[in-house]
Structure formats: C-alpha cells, structure tokens
Design brief:
347 residues, 26% strand, mainly beta, Leucine-rich repeat, LRR (right-handed beta-alpha superhelix), 1 helix, 8-stranded mixed sheet
C-alpha cells in the first residue's frame, strides 16, 4: 500500500477509496467507502506513530472502521464517529487507555468483538440523533440501529456505571466481566431474546436489572457474583436458566421461578446468603445439584406442584426451611426422595 513518511507528515491509503494523513498529532481519514481490516494492530499503517496520535478525524463518507484500526492509540482522549459509519470492527478502539468520550451516531449497525476492550477511562458514549447529542454521564447507550454486538465489546471499561441496550439487539453476548465492577444499572430492550454466558458476571455493584418479557434464555453464570443485586424479576417468558446463573448474589432476598421454566439447573442460586423467600412454579419438574445450597437464611419455599420436583441430596443445605405445598400433598412430599429431609412441610 502506498505510504509517505517524513518528519512532519505521514500519509497513505487505508481502503480502496480512503486516504489517511497524520500531521501534528492529528490523524485524518478521508474519502468514501470501507476502511481496510488488519489482522493485528501492528499492521495498521499508522501503528509506528500510534503514541503520537492525539486526535482522530473521520470524515463523512467513511462507512466502516476496520479491525484493529486504532488499537493501542493510547493518547487519544475522544472520538467523533460520523453518521456515514455503519460498523466498528473487532478491536477497533481496544486498549485506547485515555479514551474518555465517544460520540456515535444512530446509524451504526455493528459493534465488533472487543471493539472498546480495556478502554479503562471510557466513561461516556453519547448518541447523536438529528444533530442533537444525548449525553449519558458514566454510561453507554447502544443505539437502536445496532443489530450486532460483539463479544467483550466493552470488557475492561471500568468507569462505566450504566448500560442501555438498543432495540435491535437480539442477544447480549459475553461482553462484561470482573473489570465492569462500576456498573450499577442495566436496561435491556424488549428485542433481546438471550442473555449470554457470563454477561454480567462479577458486576459487584450492580443493584438494578430489568429483564424484559422478550428474554427466553439466561446463560450460565450470567449474573454470578453480583453481590449487591437485591431483586431480580424473571419474566414467565424465560424457558431456561443456565447453571450457576445467580451464584453468590449475596444481597438477593427473594426469587420467583418463572412459569416457563421446567427445570432449575445446577448451582443456580448457590451461596445466595440473604435469600429468604422462593416461589417455585408448578411447571418445574426437576431442580439440580446445589441449586439452593449454601442459602442459610432461606426461610420459606412455596411449591404449588402436587407432584414433587425431582431433587438431589445436595440441592438444598438448609432443611429447616418451611415448605408450603398444595392441599393433600404433604404426605407425598414427606415420602419423596430428599424432600423428606425437610422438617417443616405445611399445606
């Protein structure tokens, strides 16, 4: 690819119809069409000068930001993505350590895998609509235009405190981990059908989550170790909850198992030390190993099923819990394997 370097200016091509120029710390991308993709950050034409890039201007007409395009541009404080850009590639802005502000349009359709990974200073993504900027401090709003959100897109963005997922996203992938301990609230749009594996795992200060009625699946460890999560309303649309999904949610007090669920997996509520009240829907046929193990404050379980769900010896560890069962079902529960370990069964 053609490239010119001198002491004051570097320039070249970065797409079939795109050019770039780096001058006095400002990288300008101009032209029309897609930007090239690079398999690693050191393949981008401006990589050798990445530490000198203090500003990036992407001119209107550019339709994509390539894979690894601005990876490791550690001096970049902000970026304005024009309305013409429809996709941000994998690792597009990864490890931009000083990136604080991203101005993004509602024309974006794709945010690639690890697009903003380890942007530890990122605290604000503002969505531009009809020339207005909607500023969400310490938060990110995924535009409604986005229909693909890559895995770990915001992993390590430790300053973010809230996330709102756009209306076109159908699946929330594995994109949040222990580095996201600052996230306090999440709003999920009613287009989302699946909450993926480990999505909100270790969000230690998460207190508020709204799961819409569109969700049918919650993945393994999805909310594990969200130690400040007090309340979760799981809608009846949910048909599967992965193993360990709410493990060690220490402040969770009560839970209603949704009507769409026929089984509760292994360790789903293990070590929920404040869990006191549980309602298990009559459609649940089996409860897995350690599902409610290590819940010392579990006081009351309401089970409307006349036939006891199948449980394991280690499903529960607190057998002093009061079980409320349907009329004329007490004897059935007293005779059922492992339910008979409970001392307080009432109709």
């Amino acid at each position: 690819m053609n490239q010119t370097l001198n002491n004051n200016c570097s320039n070249g091509e970065c797409g079939p119809s795109l050019k770039w120029e780096l001058k006095a710390g400002t990288l300008t991308i101009s032209g029309t069409g897609k930007m090239d993709d690079w398999q690693s950050s050191d393949q981008s034409p401006w990589y050798t000068n990445k530490s000198a890039i203090k500003a990036i201007i992407i001119e209107d007409g550019v339709t994509s930001i390539g894979n690894n395009a601005f990876h490791h541009c550690s001096a970049l404080p902000k970026i304005n993505i024009p309305n013409s850009v429809e996709s941000i590639g994998d690792l597009g802005f990864a490890v931009c350590n000083n990136l604080e502000l991203v101005e993004i349009s509602d024309n974006i359709k794709k945010i690639g895998e690890e697009a903003f990974r380890d942007c530890g200073c990122l605290a604000n993504i503002s969505v531009k609509r009809e020339s207005a900027i909607y500023d969400h401090k310490a938060s990110i709003e995924i535009p409604d235009s986005v229909n693909y959100l890559g895995k770990r897109a915001f992993k390590g963005c430790s300053r973010l405190t809230s996330i709102e997922v756009g209306k076109m996203v159908e699946k929330i992938p594995l994109w949040i981990s222990i580095e996201h301990s600052a996230i306090k609230s999440v709003i999920i749009s009613d287009s989302v059908a699946s909450i993926g594996k480990e999505v909100f795992c270790d969000c230690e200060v998460l207190t508020d989550i709204h799961i819409p009625h569109s969700v049918v699946n919650i993945g393994e460890n999805a909310f594990a170790c969200c130690s400040n999560l007090v309340e979760v309303n799981i809608p009846d649309s949910v048909m599967s909850i992965g193993n360990w999904a709410f493990k060690a949610c220490h402040d969770l007090v009560s839970i209603d198992i949704p009507k769409g669920l026929t089984s509760i997996g292994n360790g789903v509520f293990i070590r929920c030390s404040s869990l006191s009240f549980v309602t298990i829907s009559k459609n649940v046929e089996s409860i897995g190993d350690y599902a409610f193990y290590g819940c010392p404050n579990l006081k009351y379980i309401d089970i409307p099923a006349t036939t006891p769900p199948t449980i394991e010896r280690s499903t529960f560890s607190n057998h002093k819990t009061v079980l409320h069962v349907p009329k004329r079902s007490r004897a059935v529960y007293r005779a059922a394997p492992h339910w008979s370990d409970f001392k307080n069964i009432f109709e």
